Amino acid sequence: MSTPQTVNISHDFALPVERVYAYLAEHEHLGPLFGATITRLRDGDTSRNGAGSVRRLKVGPLPAFEETVTEAVDNTRIGYRISKGSPLRNHRGVMEFRPVGTGCHLDYRIEFDSAVPGLGPLVRLGLERTLRRGLRTVDAKA
Fold first, then answer.
1. For residue 3, what pLDDT is reported?
2. What is the 3-state secondary structure (H, E, C) of 21-60?
3. Is the sign of the CA dihedral 75, 41, 123, 90 positive or negative?
4. Which has the closest alpha carbon to 88: 113, 53, 52?
């Protein structure tokens, strides 16, 4: 097993937490953040984007994989994990939102390791770059 990898990103938005949370909770809006084509497979147990909702991600020529939302607390927190079809193991992503003045602050943490030696650091670097670039577009889209 490879060394565990962590992506930590903090980002401030001009928009209020309600708008940023609503935008990032919507599966189909995450495509540009991850550089992926995203398809909703299942709505959540009690709400469309809540716990139990499942999305399929396809990044370029790589095989598709699925993510399942494990926690959704309105305007506060979204947790998810890869649930099917990835060489990444022990994957967990958490977005934590908090109001800052009239805007919003996001702390985004992704942890994982890989069954493929050397893959983890490459995925971490790619995720960091793609997420930082994608988050800069949220204020204009949300």
1. 85
2. HHHHHCHHHHHHHHCCEEEEEECCCCCCCCCCCEEEEECC
3. positive
4. 113
Average pLDDT over residues 64-83: 97
Distance of CA 42 to the CA centre of its chain: 17
Kindly report the CATH number that applies to the domain delimited by 5-141: 3.30.530.20
- Taking all residues of the chain, what is their mean pLDDT, rounded to a whole number? 95
Instruction: Name the E strands within the chain.
Output: 5-13, 37-42, 54-58, 65-73, 77-84, 88-100, 103-114
Owner of token pair 């991600």: 57
Model confidence pTM above 0.90: yes
CA distances from 73 to 25, 50, 105, 131 (A): 10, 8, 15, 22
The rounded distance, in Å, linking the Cα atoms of 22 and 19 is 5
